[in-house]
Please model this.
Amino acid sequence: MIIDERIVTEAIAGSFFEKFKSCIDLDVAIVGGGPSGLTAAWRLARAGRNVALFERKLSIGGGMWGGGMTWTSIVVQNEAKGILEEAGVAVSEYKPGYYTADSVAATAALAYQATKAGAHVFNCTSVEDVVLREVDGVRRVIGLVVNSSPVEIARLHVDPLVLHCRYAIECTGHDTEMLKTLVRKNDVKLNTPSGVIEGEQSMWADVAEANTVRYTQEVFPGVWVAGMAANATFGSYRMGPIFGGMLLSGVHVAEAIDALL
Ligand code: 48H
Model:
């Protein structure tokens, strides 16, 4: 076979822009490709929803690749073990209720399941703003403003593009970056005790793990928070390298939004 470079170029441009065009009107847009975002993308795509995930970095996976302190093992508790197993990851019991898994295998498996189920993943793409509109008298986020991460990193003055979505999920982890932008640029009140982002507290794994799921909520019309961002938004604790809460939060947000759609 003789390889024609022009066909390679045309194939990449054609297939990418087909994918991008199919995401201009999404059911769900996920911001951040860590474990919570990937799990939500997997479950929503599997439920037949048109879902896209936007990740700033070249690699999706967020904080899961490195396990604890770069030691590539993660821990999940009883309640979340089945999610990893369903994704095809081998888990082994360390002590009753505590399971370990290879962090690289777990991250790769979640990414594989999400893309295999049909989630559209855009790596190297930063969400830099939201689209806020009044719908039936209520202000609501109805879309995302996205840009190429290299543009953002090089601080080039290049305008972004815009996608609409019925729901957005804030999965940017500790930084709650998308929510911070929503609050900074607009006079809005969140569904938190103070009406703003409460901020993350120091380590308390037990409470934090339960709270990650408890605080996986719609925090503003059209915006759900999941994973570490849910904890940080509602003023809960960090939990270290136990990842069950992230996975359970991803499942929970997917089921809740799927039920609303
Ligand atoms: C596009 C963005 C943007 C943006 C950020 O941090 P993550 O892994 O998030 P979670 O919540 O799925 O998992 C949290 C977990 O990794 C963790 O940090 C834990 C358990 N910590 C406990 C502790 O005690 O420290 O992933 C968030 C992703 C990252 O990949 C970012 O690059 C990405 O979001 N991101 N993507 N547009 N504006 N901001």
